[in-house]
Amino acid sequence: MRDGTERRGRSRVADRAWRGRGVEGTTRAPGWRPLPLLVPALLWLTVFTVGPAVVSAIAAGTDKTLISPDFHWVGLDNADTAVHDPSLSHAVRNTLLYCVITVIPAVVIGLGLALAASRLSRGRTAIAFALFLPASANLVAMSVVFAYMFNDQPGSLANTVIGWFGAAPKDWLGDTSTALPVVALVGLWRLTSFIFVVYLAGLTSIPTSVYEAAAVDGVRGWARLRRITLPLLTPSTVFVVVFSTILTLQTFETVSVLTQGGPLDSSTTLVYYMYQVGFTGSFRIGYASMLALLMFVVIALLGMGGALLGRRARRRLSPDETVSDVDPMRLERAVAA
Fold first, then answer.
1. For residues 96 and 248, what is the distance between their CA atoms, to the nearest angstrom?
2. CA separation, residue 39 to residues 28, 32, 36, 45, 46 (Å)
3. In whole angstroms, how far apart are CA 217 and each of 123, 204, 213?
4. Percent of the chain with pLDDT over 70
5. Which residues make beta-bridge pairs with 65?
6. What are phi and psi of 77, to 5 degrees?
7. 3-class DSSP state for residue 196?
8. Which residue of 36, 120, 155, 335 is most buried, as measured by CB atoms within 10 A?
9. Residues with Cβ < 8 Å from 16, sequence gap 6 or more?
10. 62 - beta bridge partners?
11. How many CB atoms lie within 10 A of CB 321?
């Protein structure tokens, strides 16, 4: 009786192995079946990302314009033009200033909000969700809202606030001294939300045993923040600084909606200058493509430098104190914590 049962069992195992190779310990070859599922994504990537990038890289070496079908290969002449372009230098200075007045305050405020939220015992989920909303908001729509808040009318929100202190109404977006700071305020508002979530994820990954040991040694308050929390958050800090810098270098929507680069090009950023060169005025799409290529090289170098700094920061931490990499799943868990 037992022999017959064993034979039937062996026959079922053999049948599974023959049909699907499903015997435990074997691997099923994926074959070609998953490939059709990848076709839409690959087609989208090729048509809207890889294809335009290749065409732009080729156009960077030509004098192509959008108003004429004729063009010639000029090699690195566009790069030489960029080096001696005073308008480009002005746009680069504006972009760097925009990065400074956006990234640094956003990192400081985001860290402070994360530290405050991590100490809450009640309502942390609701507060974290509310503070995360700006990161998910549509940037163009928010730029329109800020345009109403900072218009030159006496009844605008900004002019009403300064009126409480006896100041006269101000044309915020039409003044060369305030146009770029107002544009940066939109980026700061949104960027702070993202940095808050990243830091909150980093704080939740720090073992409580580290703080308990520090309390036993009498390390509290500012000393605990300076000696324990900030060093353990170094990988997160490197990530947010590099990623935020890359984002601010590509600022376009807020400038386009709020100031269109004015007044007197005081708020023209690098990407908006590319748009002006390639799609307005002389329509020099070849020169604009060269600017985009140079910017891609800069962003790639920043990314590689950030990766090296982040890896070095993680290596300095002991294995039981290492803060893991920030990924979308960690961000989601931090918001839901």
1. 9
2. 22, 12, 5, 10, 10
3. 31, 22, 6
4. 84
5. 68
6. -65, -35
7. helix
8. 335
9. 22, 23
10. 73
11. 15
Kindly report the pTM of this predicted structure: 0.80
Closest residue by Cα to residue 178 from 170, 167, 169, 188: 170
DSSP string, 106-152: HHHHHHHHHHHHHT-SSSHHHHHHHHHHHHHS-HHHHHHHHHHHTSS
Q: Which amino acid is at 207?
A: P
CA 225 to chain centre: 26
Whether the per-residue pLDDT at 334 is higher than 80: the answer is no
| 236: its two tokens | 């997160």
- Encode pLDDT of 261-298 as tens digits: 989 899 999 999 999 999 988 899 999 999 999 999 99
Domain limits, the chain: 1-30, 77-336
Tell me, what's the pLDDT at 319?
Answer: 47
Contact between residue 326 and residue 310 where contact means Cβ atoms under 8 Å apart: no
Using DSSP, state whether 289 is helix, strand or coil. Answer: helix
Domain 77-336 fold is MetI-like fold (1.10.3720)
Say whether pLDDT at 31 is over 70: no
Q: Report which of 192, 184, 204 is spatially closest to residue 109, judged by C-alpha positions.
A: 192
Q: 155-159, 263-267, 319-323, 332-336: which range is least confident on average? A: 332-336
Asked if residue 335 has pLDDT above 50, the reply is no
Does the pLDDT value for residue 102 go beyond 70?
Answer: yes
